[in-house]
Each structure stands twice: as structure tokens, then as C-alpha cells.
């Protein structure tokens, strides 16, 4: 026990001793024991304390990065009359060429102020000693604005020390790369695919945004900026705070893809639309078959070209619509599972289907041929209704396209009316037959039976000639 007490006493005595063999350039570790307004103290071995500028315990914004009790790594700047002065990087205090050479040999950071731009780079002042930093070593990325560095102080590493200090080459880029690697290492541990992160817009490109994740940049493609189709990168600004969802993370190739829109619930999950609903919508795209209209951000419906007019044929959507137009539309059908909505354009035309139409059954109407198919012919009646003549109801069933040219006038008989689906079934042969019957009836009524059998036969022959003329029309 006595031996143990002697050892403890010896260790305690040694701890009270003050080192006096510190030399400029020595790397030390100590505890922050006092923080003052301008100067602070670092506890070294025994009772020795070193002085450090309080500013070195703060970041660029003036926030303390070290607190009382924290362990700090520093370098001896000077030892005078028992006073030891230290710095976290050489150059912050009194520096000579010997210290800079020591910094070069031990890869110790030095602090310098960019004095001016010179040929090939910048002249950097480290405590009155002139050094040189090439353009390629001042930052991670090259910039056309060289003036942004002039007059500012940065940390550097000495990468060449020649001619007894007459030629000192510096690099800031090496330190930035090391810092970035450390940030990437920490970032890799802290985030994963699917996480929601807060970041800042670093740069804006035509194809999307690059955002700063605090260690490396990630890309938000333009398609991931908003659920809406009509989105512009111009609504964002550099430095803007944004919340993003991590979609992919390729750490080896330093590629991270993010989404701003997927932070919010997909619009299709929130809508509560019904058939018959009316919307003031924006035309966001036009194709030959029709137009897409945005009902709410991220939810679009399609207006087929056949649903753009109640009374006339629209051959090209551009005849009445253009991208960016605000129009009124009615929802015809919705399929949430397939995310499809069918719309019709609301116009100022009078809807012929809203009029009394029962009297049209079995009536003869005049119309214009709008379209021909192998199965029949579409005809627009004079009242604006669109009907269809099946092939079996055509007078000429061979080479329909040739015999029923678009724009040609034609007489038809209305055979069926489907009000619910707004469909008419028409017949050309029925119209011809009805016309024949009308001619024959008028002919018979214009002659009484007292004319005699011989005269009646003559009239019958005359009627057959008229009937054949009607059929040849």
C-alpha cells in the first residue's frame, strides 16, 4: 500500500510541473479553461496555460465552436518570459520562415490574406511573408470573378517551400477537398434513400436544381419540382431553403437525386371529383387528338377533339385552343386507378341535344359528311347534331371513301335517337325510300281513278321513270 501511495504522490508531483521546453511550431492538445473577450486560455501539462485569441474559438459568423472544457488542437507560436502563445493555424500570429518551413514539413495549416491577383494566380500575405496560390488551388471550382478572393483571409496548406522561403506555393483547394470528404463521410452516415432533408438551392439549371446537402450537392430534376406539368425553375432562387425527399444515392459516383414534389402527398390521392363537375382549367398541352387541361396542380384531364364543339367538326385543336388558355370544362368520366379524366369543353353554343328532339324520329334531314370509315359515314345535321350511317344503310356500299367525300351534302332518315349517349343512327336508303313513297303518293292523289285503266298504266310508267331518277340522285 505504501508503495502505491508513493507512486501516486510521484505522479501528482509530476503533474504540477510546468513544461519549459515548448518551441514554436510544436503541436499541442489542451483544454479550454477560460474564454475572455479578446484572449482565452488553454490548459497544457501541469499548471502551464497558453494564450489564444478568442476569435479562433469562433466560426466565420461569430458563433463559438469551442466551449469551456473542450479539448483543442493548436500550435505553439511563441514562448516568451514563460508566456506561451498558441494558434489553431499558423499565420494568425507572429510567423517567420522557420515556422512556415515547419508547417510545410508537417502539413500544418497556415492562415493568409489574398493581397492581389498576379500572373497565374494570387499573391497571399502570411504575416508579411509573400506567398503564391495558383488559380487552380484557390477553390474547388473555377470562377470568372477573381475579385471575390481579394482582401479575404483563408486557411492554406504549403505544398512547395523552395529557395529558403523565397518561393512558397500554397493550396486552399486541398483543405476544401479534405473538408468535403469528411462532410461526405458524415453525410453518408446520416441520410438514406426515403429521408426528408432540409437543404439550400446551390445553383439553378434548365434541367433542375442543385441543392447543398451540407457536404455534397444533389440534383432535383425539373420533373421532380412540382406535381404540376407547367413548372419553371425560375420560381426558385439560389440560397432558398427547400425540403426534399432523397430518391437515389450513388455514393461511389457522388450522385444523389432528390424530389421536392414528393415531400407532399400526390394530388390524385386528395381529389374528390365527380362526373358533371365544372372547372375553370388551364390548357397545358395540345396534341392532334385533343388537349390536356390542368384542373388542379398535378391533376389533368383530356378533352378529345370530338368534345370541343356541340355543333361543328373541329379538325385541329389549335383552331379554338392554345396552350395557356383558361377554359371551362365539364368532367365526363374519371378513373382514379388509372389516373384518367375525360372532359368536354363548355362553349357558348346552344346544345341541340337539349332541345325537343323526339319529332326527329323517322324524319328526313339534310347533313354534311364529316368522316368516312369502312363501317359507315358520320354526318353533321343542319341543327348541329352528329349522326352515323352504318354501311348497311348506305346506297353505295362499295368504295365508301370515294362515293362519300368529306364536305358533301347528303339526305338521311333519322332511325334511332340515343339521348343519353348523344347518338343518332341515320339511313341514306331510308331517306330515298321515303322520298319515293312521297312522290308516288303525291302522284296518285293528283289523278283520280276515273281516268280509266289505260290512262292509269301510262301514269304508272311515268311514275316508274320518276322513281328511277330519284334513286340515281
Describe the fold and architecture.
The chain has helices at 2-16, 97-106, 173-190, 400-403, 428-445, 453-472, and strands at residues 27-35, 39-43, 49-53, 71-80, 83-87, 109-118, 121-126, 129-134, 153-162, 167-171, 196-205, 208-212, 217-221, 241-250, 255-259, 278-287, 290-296, 299-304, 326-335, 340-345, 364-373, 376-381, 386-390, 409-418, 423-427. It has 473 residues and is an alpha+beta fold. It has 5 domains: 2-87, Beta Barrel (OB fold (Dihydrolipoamide Acetyltransferase, E2P)), CATH 2.40.50; 97-177, Nucleic acid-binding proteins (OB fold (Dihydrolipoamide Acetyltransferase, E2P)); 191-263, OB fold (Dihydrolipoamide Acetyltransferase, E2P) (Beta Barrel); 267-345, OB fold (Dihydrolipoamide Acetyltransferase, E2P) (Beta Barrel); 352-473, OB fold (Dihydrolipoamide Acetyltransferase, E2P) (Beta Barrel), CATH 2.40.50. A hairpin with a 4-residue loop joins strand 24 and strand 25 (423-427). The radius of gyration is 45 Å and the shape is rod-shaped. Residues 11-18 have low confidence and may be disordered.
Chain-wise SSE layout:
Elements: H1 2-16, E1 27-35, E2 39-43, E3 49-53, E4 71-80, E5 83-87, H2 97-106, E6 109-118, E7 121-126, E8 129-134, E9 153-162, E10 167-171, H3 173-190, E11 196-205, E12 208-212, E13 217-221, E14 241-250, E15 255-259, E16 278-287, E17 290-296, E18 299-304, E19 326-335, E20 340-345, E21 364-373, E22 376-381, E23 386-390, H4 400-403, E24 409-418, E25 423-427, H5 428-445, H6 453-472
Parallel strand pairs: 3-5, 18-20, 23-25
Antiparallel strand pairs: 1-2, 1-4, 2-3, 4-5, 6-7, 6-9, 7-8, 9-10, 11-12, 11-14, 12-13, 14-15, 16-17, 16-19, 17-18, 19-20, 21-22, 21-24, 22-23, 24-25
Amino acid at each position: 500500500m505504501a508503495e502505491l501511495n508513493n507512486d501516486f504522490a510521484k505522479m501528482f508531483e509530476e503533474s504540477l510541473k510546468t513544461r519549459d521546453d515548448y518551441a514554436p511550431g510544436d503541436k499541442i492538445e489542451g483544454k479550454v479553461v477560460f474564454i475572455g473577450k479578446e484572449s482565452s486560455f488553454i490548459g497544457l501539462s501541469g499548471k502551464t496555460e497558453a494564450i489564444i485569441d478568442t476569435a479562433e474559438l469562433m466560426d466565420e459568423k461569430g458563433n463559438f465552436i469551442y466551449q469551456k472544457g473542450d479539448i483543442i488542437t493548436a500550435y505553439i507560436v511563441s514562448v516568451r518570459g514563460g508566456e506561451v502563445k498558441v494558434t489553431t493555424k499558423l499565420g494568425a500570429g507572429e510567423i517567420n520562415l522557420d515556422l512556415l518551413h515547419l508547417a510545410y514539413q508537417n502539413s500544418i495549416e497556415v492562415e493568409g490574406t489574398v493581397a492581389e491577383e498576379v500572373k497565374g494566380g494570387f499573391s497571399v500575405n502570411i504575416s508579411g511573408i509573400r506567398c503564391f496560390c495558383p488559380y487552380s488551388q484557390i477553390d474547388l471550382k473555377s470562377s470568372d470573378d477573381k475579385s471575390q478572393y481579394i482582401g479575404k483571409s483563408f486557411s492554406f496548406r504549403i505544398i512547395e517551400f523552395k529557395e529558403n522561403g523565397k518561393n512558397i506555393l500554397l493550396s486552399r483547394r486541398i483543405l476544401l477537398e479534405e473538408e468535403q470528404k469528411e462532410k461526405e463521410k458524415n453525410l453518408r452516415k446520416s441520410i438514406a434513400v426515403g429521408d426528408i432533408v432540409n437543404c439550400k438551392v446551390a445553383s439553378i439549371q434548365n434541367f433542375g436544381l442543385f441543392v447543398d446537402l451540407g457536404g455534397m450537392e444533389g440534383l432535383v430534376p425539373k420533373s421532380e419540382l412540382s406535381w404540376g406539368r407547367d413548372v419553371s425553375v425560375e420560381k426558385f432562387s439560389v440560397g432558398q431553403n427547400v425540403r426534399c425527399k432523397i430518391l437515389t444515392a450513388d455514393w461511389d459516383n457522388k450522385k444523389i437525386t432528390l424530389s421536392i414534389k414528393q415531400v407532399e402527398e400526390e394530388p390524385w390521392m386528395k381529389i374528390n371529383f365527380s362526373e358533371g363537375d365544372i372547372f375553370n382549367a388551364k390548357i397545358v398541352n395540345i396534341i392532334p387528338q385533343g388537349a390536356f387541361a390542368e384542373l388542379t396542380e398535378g391533376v389533368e384531364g383530356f378533352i378529345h377533339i370530338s368534345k370541343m364543339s356541340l355543333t361543328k367538326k373541329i379538325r385541329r385543336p389549335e383552331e379554338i385552343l392554345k396552350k395557356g388558355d383558361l377554359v371551362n370544362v365539364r368532367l365526363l368520366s374519371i378513373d382514379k386507378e388509372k389516373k384518367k379524366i375525360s372532359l368536354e369543353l363548355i362553349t357558348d353554343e346552344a346544345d341541340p341535344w337539349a332541345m325537343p328532339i323526339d319529332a326527329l324520329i323517322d324524319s328526313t334531314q339534310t347533313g354534311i359528311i364529316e368522316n368516312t370509315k369502312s363501317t359507315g359515314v358520320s354526318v353533321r345535321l343542319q341543327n348541329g347534331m352528329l349522326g352515323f350511317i352504318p354501311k348497311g344503310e348506305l346506297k353505295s356500299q362499295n368504295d365508301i371513301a370515294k362515293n362519300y367525300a368529306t364536305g358533301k351534302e347528303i339526305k338521311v332518315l333519322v332511325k334511332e335517337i340515343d339521348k343519353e349517349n348523344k347518338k343518332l343512327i341515320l339511313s341514306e336508303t331510308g331517306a330515298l325510300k321515303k322520298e319515293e313513297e312521297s312522290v308516288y303518293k303525291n302522284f296518285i292523289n293528283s289523278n283520280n281513278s276515273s281516268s280509266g285503266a289505260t290512262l292509269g298504266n301510262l301514269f304508272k310508267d311515268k311514275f316508274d321513270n320518276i322513281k328511277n331518277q330519284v334513286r340515281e340522285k
